[in-house]
Amino acid sequence: MTASIRTSQDDLLPPVRAAFGAATWKEIAYLLSNLPAALIGFVYTVVTVSTAGGLSVTAIGLPLLACGLLGSRQLGKLERARSRALLGVRVDEPTPIPGPRRSGGFFPWLWSSIKDPVAWRTVLFELVRLPWGVLTFTVALTGLFVLWPVLPWVARWLTTVDRAMVRGLLSPSDELERRIAELESDRTVVVDTSAADLRRIERDLHDGAQARLVALAMGLGLAKEKLLEDPEGAAAMVDEAHGEVKLALQELRDLARGIHPAVLTDRGLDAALSSVAARCLVPVRVSVDLAARPAAAIEGIAYFVVSELLQNVSKHAAARGASVEVWRTGPRLLIRVSDDGRGGAFAPAGSGLAGLTERLDAVDGVFVVDSPEGVGTTVTAELPWRDREPAGVAGR
To answer: Residue 258 belongs to what H/E stretch?
Structure first.
């Protein structure tokens, strides 16, 4: 099966279905609720705009208008939720207007609120929707008693207009606005991922190296006490402590490798991925074709993507062999990890593959899994190429 980070945000019309299936009843419910929703939105919009316009010569006119437009944004949010629940129309939420503190003060916030295109398009939506709401309510209500045989097709036609209105007037302003909304979501994912990584590092230190070092300190203390009374016993305890030191150092090296391996910093992806492949339980062929090194952040993400995928090959694939290919195509860094195992891999929520999808999503990357049952798995990851800063620039 195939899982991709890229999915279109434009919802197509619902598929052809039974005349009075669940989708039809949802459309009829939407048409019947159009009138009360339109009345509330129209009255709110007219009262708010007219009152603010009448008081525009006073000190409270513009702040009242700004607050009214923020309320219009909330009406738009409710309409998007209603169309999502009943019509299946999924429209991204626009970026919220920052408060006065984040906007740099009251007047910058006031100006940005008054000229907010999302709010003004919602105002237009509420004004034009009242006559349409009256029409759709009347037709839907009459159709329940008079136009019953053709009501599903009438409901489909009417809600097609509603879908167009929602997408045209209640969607984010433009591609930039949608991209900002995506980045806001990605930032949340990055923060959550970073917090989870910090908790994992703390847990590994506490349960692993720290506990071992505490036991080592206690053992050396006992050896010190026995040094004069029982030299041979003390020597045995020191020898045991020496072994504990080696284990603690190995745990710290493993932990450091999980944070950012030194071989990646010093020698780049080719050497680092070869090191990861050497630890895999199946033979892995590594091919890295890069004339230059990407930015450190991109390099680190590529390393951890391959590392996670090869761990999955070792644990779950039952493969006889695997391959790792890394190359650059224009402004993108391409990674492909393949194995000849059992296949059937997918990315449910909370899984390692889902985590990789989120990690790549945060940097505008692409993650595709192709894993038919019994054939093997091929994972392709695509990252934006960013040139590595010179050492002198990075160190300033």
So the answer is: helix 231-259
Residue 325: Cβ within 10 Å count: 15
- Write out the DSSP string of 94-121: PPPPPPHHHHTSHHHHHHHHHT-HHHHH
Give the chain's domains with CATH numbers.
2-173 (no CATH), 185-259 (1.20.5), 262-394 (3.30.565.10)
Tokens for 16, please give them. 């052809």
Residue 99 corresponds to which amino acid? G
* Total residues belonging to the chain: 396
DSSP 3-state helix, strand, coil percentages of the chain (rounded to 5)? Answer: 65, 10, 25
Residue 105: left (phi > 0), alpha (psi -120 to 50), or beta? left
The pTM of this model reads 0.45
Per-residue model confidence (pLDDT) at position 209: 64
How far apart CA 237 and CA 293 sit, in angstroms, is 48
14, 88 contact by CB (below 8 A)? yes
The string of pLDDT tens digits covering residues 126-141 is 999 899 999 999 988 8
The rounded radius of gyration (Å) of the Cα atoms in the chain is 31
Name every residue whose Cβ is closer than 8 Å to that of residue 281 and which is 6 or more positions away in sequence.
313, 314
Rounded CA-CA distance 383/333 in Å is 5
